[in-house]
Amino acid sequence: MPPSKHLLIGPVLLALLAARPVAAADEKDTALVEDERLVREAKEPTDAAGLVAFFRKRTLSNADRAALERLIEQLGARSFSQRESASRQLLRWGTPAKSFLEPATRHADPEIARRATLCLDEINRGPGSSLPSAAARLLARRQSPDAVAVLLAYLPFADDSSVQDDVFGALLTLAQDKDKDRLAPLKPALKDGVLIKRAAAAYVLGRSADKDVRNAVKQLLVDKEALVRLRAAQGLLAGLEKDAVPVLIDLLAGQPADIVWQVEDLLLRIAGEGGPTAPSSSDQKDRQEYRDRWAKWWQANAAKVDLPRLAQEPPQRGWTIVSQMSTSRVYEIDRQGKERWAISELSGPIDAHVLPGDRVLIAEHHGSRVTERNLRGTILWEKRLTDRPVSVQRLPNGNTFIATYSALMEVTRANKEVYNYRPEGTAGQIYSGQRLRNGRLVCITLSGRVIELDSANGKVVRAFNSGLDGCYSIQGGLPNGRYLVASYNKGLVYELDGDGKVHWQYTFPNAYHAERLANGNFLVASHGQSRVIEVNRDGKVLFDQGTNSNNVWRVHRR
User: Fold this and answer.
1) Domain that holds residue 342
2) Which residues of the chain have pLDDT under 50?
3) Same structural domain for residues 415 and 282?
4) The domain spanning residue 342 has which CATH number?
5) Do 157 and 54 touch, CB atoms closer than 8 A?
6) What is the reported pLDDT for 434?
7) What is the per-residue pLDDT for 282?
8) What pLDDT shows up at residue 527?
């Protein structure tokens, strides 16, 4: 390993363009079980009626808001018993009280500020946004005639944007229901005065098979709110309506970053590697010129763009999960670099992936184990190893792929090994591995040798030298059968073909990990620079985030 002191609006953009492909049965069942477990642990019901009640409780009426405002003021009452009563009641309200407690932590009355802070800390120790997200996914799987109306009403009170997006995903699932009466609330929501409701309805109905319904959604392409225009465009793209693309292009200029990056992600999926290069600055003049280049590109290419292929890859949230051995932490950051959650006190985390149901799969290098945990750090599954893991991957069949210094293996939930291969000449030298979609296995040694194996028998089907050394990262299965390799020693990222020929390279000192994203850009982490960047094929850096440690190991984007 490199030297160190002790040795990153269902999902946010769930099915932006089309529903995600149906998961394998065991993966789908596993996600359902985990959601049910999380909701039960919070002592909430998991049946349809109970879940409807859960969301109604979190949908605040004017009377509810007035009651919460009174309780905040009561935190500063002269009577100790009244102050205590207000604290208890606010805690019983739970998450819906957070939007009232947060400003109260800065109240001029120090007692109100103190008690509001204590209440907020206590509420934050709970499952947080994971709970309503899991509840929304569960409700989408239950047969409730009230589900659509209840989720629409709840949207303005969702904990954060990630919960809003999971509600969008739940509504999308419910829209597959053949009972049209249950979907009735969606059409009126297209004209609702609350923008998030309009956005949700447009997002779901834009992909309707009914042309009249899609035409109604098209009216929202000129909505005064950019978020509504974005969601309408996303829905209509899934409905194969090319009218949505010019609206996306117009959103490239004059909009906040959290909208622009989503637009760029979609446009890059449409254009592939042939789209215009993003500007290196956020200057409005540069952004306008960028928008104009996209408009010109669309004029030249609209007739030959194939929208259905956009559904081949799941869209991304733009969140980056970071593994840090030096701090024994795994955490996730949003596009602005804000930390969303963190799991601490791990045993040398070198690789981590977020799984359905807000679980995290972690390769704990120093502990010679792989664990699956919830966001509170509780171990839900564990595989102990006789060697140190270097990378890990959850497979579509529910099994787990693990690469260690000397072996590539697949294990079941019951910890039974499906295979355990030790490629010749790699003992103690494997520093990254992956199972590809075609079932093959690929790994790279520290000295830069790339090896691809047949998972059925462990035989080597391809092997070559990358020309790099100090290699800690490989990603296979790229277009044209290429590989992406990162070299810490040389500070280079290479895209190579099966003969070792370099087709793209990028210089980034101490590059420890690199992966190509679905939009064609590259996510690269520097161990020595404590930086994570997203760079396009022309070398323009589109995302640059420092970290709170001088050790960055593997990073992944979702």
Assistant:
1) 320-557
2) 2-27
3) no
4) 2.120.10.30
5) no
6) 95
7) 64
8) 83
Under 8 Å between Cβ of 208 and 214: yes
Q: Give this prediction's pTM.
A: 0.68
Structural contact between residues 197 and 179, judged by C-beta atoms closer than 8 angstroms: no
Residues composing the chain = 558
Please state, in angstroms and rounded to a whole number, the distance separating the CA atoms of residues 134 and 51: 10
Write down the pLDDT at residue 116. Answer: 94
**Of the residues 296, 312, 328, which one is the last residue of a structural domain?**
312
359 and 444 both lie in a single domain: yes
> CA-to-CA distance for 551 and 558, rounded, in angstroms?
21
- The pLDDT of residue 18: 37
Q: What is the pLDDT of residue 15?
A: 37
Question: What's the pLDDT score for residue 296?
Answer: 93
Amino acid 10: pLDDT: 32
Q: Is residue 3 part of a domain?
A: no
CA angle 39, 12, 342 (to 5 degrees): 65
Question: What's 327's DSSP letter?
Answer: T
Residue 85, pLDDT score = 95
Nearest to 238 by CA among 321, 312, 154: 312
Burial of 188 (0-12, 13-18, 19+ CB in 10 A): exposed
Residue that is last in its domain, among 266, 292, 312: 312
State residue 429's pLDDT score. Answer: 92
The dihedrals phi and psi of 330, each to the nearest 5 degrees, come to: -125, 130
Query: Tokens 């009126």 identify what position?
Result: 188
Helices 130-141 and 147-154, interaxial angle, to 10°? Answer: 160
With CA atoms as reference, report the closest residue to 323 among 389, 269, 256: 389
d(CA 163, CA 17): 19
CA proximity to 97, closest of 57, 137, 40: 57
Cβ neighbours around 49 below 10 Å, total: 11
How far apart are the C-alpha atoms of 50 and 202, rounded to whole Å? 28
Whole-number Å distance between alpha carbons of 369 and 402:
10
Same domain? 196 vs 327: no
Query: Could you tell me if 8 and 524 are in contact, meaning their C-beta atoms sit under 8 angstroms apart?
Result: no
What single-letter DSSP state applies at residue 259? Answer: H
Token pair, residue 498, equals 């099966």
